[in-house]
Design a protein that fits this description.
The chain has about 240 residues and is α/β, with parallel strands linked by helices. Helices cover about 35% and strands about 20% of the residues. The strands form three sheets. It has a four-stranded mixed β-sheet with strand order 3-1-2-4. Strands 7-6-5-8 form a four-stranded mixed β-sheet, sandwiched between helices. A two-stranded parallel ribbon has the order 9-10.
């Protein structure tokens, strides 16, 4: 069952249930369908109406509800979720204790779909606790955007079909400052006729920048298809070209 509309107040930085007794000015309010969306946007839970209930379980329940349409499912695998600030906007990172499993731009339309897939593949619980993996992601992204890093060595896990994994592995072989077309990627994995399938797998990539799907372009050189927005794709390619 989907959550009721959540009210978030820009001036206080908190989000509330519809039943909250607070009455903010309409011009200071934005609405979210899910509590998890408000959390990813950087809002804190209101202490008056307690939209997360008990903090220990509420974060997990909010993300389970967002990903699965139901509030709670325990499995033992814990995925830590955090915001990462970059010059191209907020990104949402998710990691187990050992591997990064998702890095998406916060305004990507497929963000909820990716959480659904992640939840289905890992059958996980969600936690707001920080981890060394997330700290490494932040540090290496800072270096990348500052022009001091060209390659990433963050441990990553990319569960998917065999075909998807072959495509994602090939993406990581595209050198910084260069690009490949979808057909070139298809040929590189010995599936020359599977260009459309390569494009779909490229779009299904859950780890932006580190698995550089932004380095794949159209055969005519056009910047086609990027979930984070073509303007971000252009900026990333320009950044990488500067240090070539």
């Amino acid at each position: 069952m989907e959550a009721a509309t959540i009210t978030a107040v820009r001036t206080t930085g908190v989000f509330c249930l519809p039943s909250c007794s607070g009455r903010p000015k309409p011009e200071n309010v934005e609405h979210f369908r899910f509590r998890a969306e408000a959390l990813m946007a950087g809002y804190r839970a209101c202490k008056r109406c307690r939209p997360l209930g008990t903090e220990a379980n509420g974060f997990n329940e909010a993300f389970q509800e967002y990903a699965e349409g139901r509030p709670d499912r325990r499995s033992g695998t814990v995925v830590h979720v955090a915001r990462v600030e970059t010059p191209l906007g907020i990104m949402i990172a998710a990691a187990t204790d050992d591997h990064l499993v998702m890095l998406e731009f916060g305004d990507r339309r497929m963000r909820r779909t990716q959480f659904k897939r992640l939840s289905r593949l890992l059958k996980c619980d969600y936690s707001p606790d920080d981890t060394p993996i997330l700290g490494t992601v932040r540090a290496q992204l800072d270096e990348y955007f500052a022009g001091r890093r060209r390659d990433f060595d963050v441990p990553m896990s990319t569960p998917g079909t065999d075909f998807q994994r072959r495509v994602w592995q090939e993406l990581r072989r595209i050198r910084v400052g260069t690009t490949k077309s979808y057909s070139e990627v298809a040929e590189a994995i010995d599936r020359a006729t599977a260009v459309r399938a390569v494009a779909r797998a490229n779009g299904d990539n859950r780890i932006a920048i580190l698995v550089p799907c932004h380095r794949v372009i159209g055969s005519d050189g056009s910047l086609t298809g990027y979930g984070g927005g073509l303007w971000r794709k252009q900026k990333l390619l320009e950044l990488e070209a500067q240090g070539r």
